[in-house]
Specification:
492 residues, mainly alpha, two-stranded antiparallel ribbon
């Protein structure tokens, strides 16, 4: 019970911080749409992020750093500090060198991506690529804080980051090109403040002593060996946007921005709720696995999957039934026209179908990571990504076609992980959990049919009614149906 109380507290902290961050990120996207619209300049910003984002997701974006938590669970308290510093210093040096090498090929990257204005691309690309150094070091420092159940300083990072980007975008917002340059500068300064300096302080408060420790080759070698699957491959849940940027560079102007605007809104609930659950629960999952408390571990995973399926499904219905109104309210001002609203909302409806797999993926992947089974998610994701790339190259002619391909791929990926996930000989997808999913699917489908057949409202009225009716139907369903892992009325 103590574990669950602590977990709920951690999830609450992260949820509120992520909510604040996502609201600011949302506001950032609104301002970007207002100041730059759907234009070549916004496409340049996305293209400039392809290589940095790939490096970030490969490492600091949680994948390289996430391997540290189960490793640290195996270390003695007396040796943990020096071991961590050895990893931090050694890997950070490697990543700094990698960033410098990447920067040296900036013009070649621009030509490869088909950029029309090389000089403008380089101006945007330069601060963004070096910001990844701060992201990476900060992510490693966050893993140390997470291991000690300290989430508050890590929670501040994205708030500071987004605020800084908004500020520098605002002071340079006289032209679309100036806005994009301001966003790029804000990315560098925001990452240095939020993801580096604050995380140094947070790690110190968590007990880390920054001693002069020489990186040990054996530590770095062992760590890289363990992390190798995550270095070599990317899950499709992360790489999809990067793929689209590459393929989108060969489509009509604004195609990348269209997908980008739609995806940002769809990912909002995932970032606030699902990611908070995944981040907060990961240290607990690691400890339960190390203690061999498999029954408790399985119960926790099944509860998380059920709740995320239900919440994700409800949010998916609300998003689909209010798509055009949400896009209009959030983006339609300044350079963002009614035609852009129609384009983006059509893509947003498709992408919203991915809220469920994006959500449960936060728990599924971490369930493999706590066992140090990194290869299976990576190989599965890489294979599906490879197939998707072939299909994209041959079939994707616009943002809508691309979105459908990615959505289908995501469902295949998550289904594969779920069907294969087990601890010792016991599968996570038990008969009880499967019935739970079927009940949830029935409830969500019922809500959607009501809106499709009965409700004919539009605008704010439809949004309010959809929110209220969805909550009411879910609570009534929870009372009438016998759910195994979801129980809001009382604690089990």
């Amino acid at each position: 019970m103590q574990n669950y109380k602590k977990l709920i507290g951690s999830i609450t902290i992260i949820t509120f911080s992520y909510a604040a961050s996502r609201v600011l990120g949302f506001f950032r996207e609104i301002l970007l749409a207002n100041w730059a619209g759907v234009s070549e300049a916004t496409d340049t910003l996305d293209l400039a992020f392809i290589i940095p984002d790939f490096l970030f997701y490969l490492s600091a974006g949680g994948y390289l750093a996430i391997t540290l938590i189960p490793i640290m669970s195996e270390k003695k308290k007396s040796e943990l500090n020096n071991y961590f510093l050895s990893i931090l210093y050694g890997i950070s040096l490697i990543f700094i060198i990698l960033s410098l090498i990447t920067y040296s090929f900036r013009f070649q990257f621009a030509e490869l991506l088909g950029v029309t204005s090389l000089d403008f691309f380089v101006e945007v690309f330069t601060p963004i690529i070096f910001s990844q150094v701060f992201f990476f070091i900060g992510a490693i420092l966050m893993s140390y804080q997470y291991f000690h159940d300290n989430f508050k300083y890590a929670a501040i990072a994205p708030v500071v980051y987004n605020s800084t980007i908004i500020f520098f975008g605002w002071i340079n917002s006289s032209t679309p090109e100036g806005t994009i340059k301001g966003f790029a500068i804000g990315t560098l300064i925001g990452s240095a403040l939020g993801h580096f300096l604050i995380q140094i302080y947070g790690a110190k408060k968590s007990g880390l002593s920054f001693d002069l420790v020489s990186p040990k080759f054996i530590h770095i070698k062992d760590y890289i060996t363990i992390s190798l699957p995550l270095i070599l491959g990317q899950s499709i849940a992360v790489v999809d946007e990067q793929l689209f940027r590459v393929f989108g560079s060969f489509l009509a102007a604004g195609s990348i921005a269209t997908f980008r605007y739609a995806r940002r809104i769809a990912l909002l609930p995932v970032g606030i709720i699902a990611q908070a659950v995944g981040v907060a629960s990961y240290p607990l999952l690691s400890r339960l696995f190390q203690k061999n408390e498999i029954d408790e571990l399985l119960k926790l995973i099944k509860k998380q999957l059920s709740y995320l399926f239900l919440i994700g499904g409800a949010l998916m219905v609300i998003a689909i039934t209010n798509a055009e109104y949400l896009i209009e309210v959030i983006y339609e001002r300044g350079a963002f026209t009614i035609d852009d609203t129609i384009r983006v909302s059509a893509v947003f409806i498709i992408i919203s179908l991915a809220i469920v797999p994006w959500s449960i993926n936060q728990v599924l992947t971490r369930s493999y990571y706590v066992q140090q089974k990194f290869w299976f998610p990576v190989i599965t994701g890489s294979f599906i990504t490879m197939i998707s790339s072939v299909v994209l190259f041959n079939a994707a002619r616009d943002a809508k076609a691309y979105a459908w391909i990615i959505i289908i791929s995501l469902y295949i990926y998550c289904a594969t992980l779920l069907l294969s996930l087990r601890f010792n000989s016991e599968r996570v997808l038990s008969k009880e959990l499967l019935f739970e999913f079927i009940k949830i699917l029935f409830v969500i489908s019922f809500v959607f049919l009501i809106f499709e057949i009965i409700i004919t409202l539009t605008g704010i009225a439809n949004l309010i009614v959809s929110l209220i009716l969805t909550v009411v139907i879910i609570f009534v369903s929870l009372s009438l149906l016998n759910f195994e892992y979801i129980n809001i009325a009382k604690r089990r």
